[in-house]
Amino acid sequence: MASKRPEYVIEHMEEDDPDAPSVFPEWALLEYRHMLSLVGAGSTVHFTSLSSASLDSLREALSSSSSTNPPRAAFELHTASITTLAEKQGIPLSSICLLDPRAQYCLHASDAGKYPAPSVSEESQEGQAGGPFTHFLYGGILGDDPPRDRTSSLRALGFPGRHLGKVQMTTDTALGVTKRIVEDGKGMGDQEGVRGEGPEGALQWMEFPELKFGKGESVSMPFRYMTDETAKGSEPQPLMPPGMREHIRKDLDRSFEF
């Protein structure tokens, strides 16, 4: 019998007042929809710490789906925080992995229990890394440039952590990378040592790609992306949410709020 797939949790970090009205920026909605496609059918993406107003608007945005879209993950929206949700559902905090750029250990294919753990040497502290995990946790709207340590409030709660390398990612990329590693057996790459190795090979990256729009218009994205394996043409392309390029082109004259 196949083991249950891990679930993914986006703790919405923008809500200082849980009762405050909120309108999600378009780029955030594009990312959140993309998360459901990246995870795919058979698992759930949870959005936590939402105000009532933002919960309703997000439900409407995520429920609108074209029949041509690939199968998507289910989603659940919560006004409760991840700690409250975990307590209600009986999920120990030790089973929830916080994706944290300051974590000691790199995410590995073994971290959801589907693949073997890296070999442990006498000098290694691998045995103290914790895991496997049933849930993977992210601070919502993370894509700041330069990065702000939005994850600090979650880190302070004592979740075990994993990092995804030193280069900043958008939240949907971080979630997609996690899925590809813990469910598909990919690795971060040689720069992460033994934990960067994946039984199914390493992920392919594009760092700070330049998006070209013609007529001399272009913009450099300050993030690391996975390479889009479905892109046509000879040049590699970053894996981005559908509609994101068009959104960026419209906002070329505005500073990025990622």
Automatic annotation (TrEMBL):
Pfam family membership, one: SFM1-like
Top-level division of the source organism's lineage: Eukaryota
GO MF, one annotated term: protein-arginine omega-N monomethyltransferase activity
Coiled-coil region(s): none
UniProt-annotated stretches for the region Disordered: 229-258
Basic and acidic residues compositional bias, start-end: 244-258
Protein name, entry field: DUF431-domain-containing protein
